[in-house]
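Running co-folding for adenosine-5'-diphosphate.
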Amino acid sequence: MSQKQTLSFQAEVAQLLHLVTHSLYSNKEIFLRELVSNASDACDKLRFEALNNNALYEDSPNLEVRVGFDKQARTLTITDNGIGLSQQEAIDNLGTIAKSGTREFVNRLSGDQKADAQLIGQFGVGFYSGFIVADKISVESRRAGLPPEEGVRWTSTGAGDFEVEAITRPERGTSVTLHLREDAADYLSTWKLKSIIAKYSDHISLPIVMRKEEWKEGEDNKGGEMVLTDEWETVNQASALWSRPKKDIAPEQYQEFYKQISHDHEAPLAWAHNRVEGSTEYVQLLYIPAHAPFDLWNREKAAGVKLYVKRVFIMDEAEALLPSYLRFVKGVIDSADLPLNVSRELLQESRDVKAIREGSTKRVLGMLEDLAKAEQEEGASDEDKGKYAKFYAEFGAVLKEGMGEDLGNRERLAKLLRFASTTSDTTSVSLAGYKARMKEGQEAIYYITGDTLAAAKNSPQLEVFRKKGIEVLLMTDRVDEWALNYLEEFDGTPMQSVAKGAVQLDKLLDEGEKKAAEEAAEIFKPVLEKLKEALKDKAQDVRVTTRLVDSPACLVVTDSGMSMQLARMLKQAGQKAPEVKPVLEINASHPLVKKLDGSEHFDDLAHILFDQALLAEGGLPEDPAAYVKRVNALLV
Ligand code: ADP
């Protein structure tokens, strides 16, 4: 870079800056949190790169963040001796939006200034937050390892463009100078800055230092004032939050730390902080968020746990530390035993990591069990009582993936599952709760899967269950059927789909009902044979059932078969699904079925019965036009 260049901001940045500079903020002070956090990240990055290249420390191995101000010039400067920026990095990183947190913020902008300004206070938007209080920002930096002449100065007033030029900068790292607006002059105060740092940045593991202040008497003992000295003092705790004893950490500090690592503005539902000492030693600080991130369904990306080794940051999103079905968990694991140069590949094979993963999984399940327990607890506050339901609404479907993924914890997971049922529209029925309500003579936990709650609830297959007052779980999550494959029984009671196999309802029918059913089946036999013949291409079998009350017929699959719905879902997703040939079950006492006997339209009626049964459970007749034709012929 030979001379000054003027460059434009990426469109999203310009949009963001417009909002930042034109809105009123309730929470201006967050700019400091953002800049200190960037400085701290830059030091983490240096430490990490220096693992393989110690020379990067140059002559200043003690990493720190300096916060200084100049009242006369009305400037506030945040300086770090971290990794620094090269000239190109300054252009790329301070002219575009890099981080997912900031990008998510931009995606959420509504266009309503007031609402958006509130969002900013909660989220923070990284470096650009500086323009909340400054009408000009200048950044001077040199990347570790580059010669002093390859320093860079970046300046902008936060309008459409910024300037960059080469400078000579002996010190490594970055210094961000905010030229404060007139109405932001109150940040030029040690007391004010210290209190903001204590509020947001206390947990940062680096020392944040400021010049010490001293009282200076005025001339002739007339008044006096605080003046800055040349001595620097550390103004934060400067130890990683998770490395401190639990008893010294206030709930607010845990929450603030969560917000910083997760870019979530809402407080977490729960957290667990433990030092684990066993075959491997580590500290875990794990959080359960209150709501799902936008990329929860991306199984590849989302892993929320950061890995540290002896308090040195190693990597974000370390997916080896928790199973994928717990990818919503955020937090930090700090291992005392892993090598500092550990790579993602090494993590997969490490025995220490395996132990950490098992220990952390148990811890998360424990937290969830505690939340679930609070639902029932007498003395619990309404807020605590509602936490598990809140969690489940956001993450229940992800948790279910664990049924197939984590065989070792299947029983614990099964207890955490919740479903809607024929007696509860909300997803609040636990398997244990269901069991406690089972009827005398009921031998299984019954469930039905469906595309929607309404479809599941109104399925003809439920008729006899309703009549007998037997509860049936309604499952409408896409993963339900798959997850249920892994759960054959719960606490000794088999799980039985009401849409699979012949339901064993004998014990639930009274003598009169049984007798009537047998008689009807006997009389119906000849018709049944004719039906089988007429539908031999569509139905694997036709049989008489006692499960129907108001409907003439329904479709079921064999016990081991895939449900029709899952087959449909796979097909829609473009995947290969086995051809499912269902069994048609007939309600022999239904008037329409009675009509079959001797009817001249036998064939049409048979096909209509089949196609209607298919429609009733959410499917489509193979030949819809033929179906319509047959129905119309009869209507006429
Ligand atoms: P992020 O959320 O990624 O930190 P920012 O807008 O705050 O987003 O910063 C953009 C990028 O600028 C950072 O990812 C980093 O690469 C760079 N950056 C910001 N501050 C510093 C700093 N003090 N030292 C080195 N690089 C920095």
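Result summary
The chain has three domains: 5-234, 241-374, 418-635.
The pocket of adenosine-5'-diphosphate is lined by residues 38-39, 42, 80, 82-85, 93-94, 98-99, 101-102, 126-128, 174 (CB under 6 Å).
Job closed.
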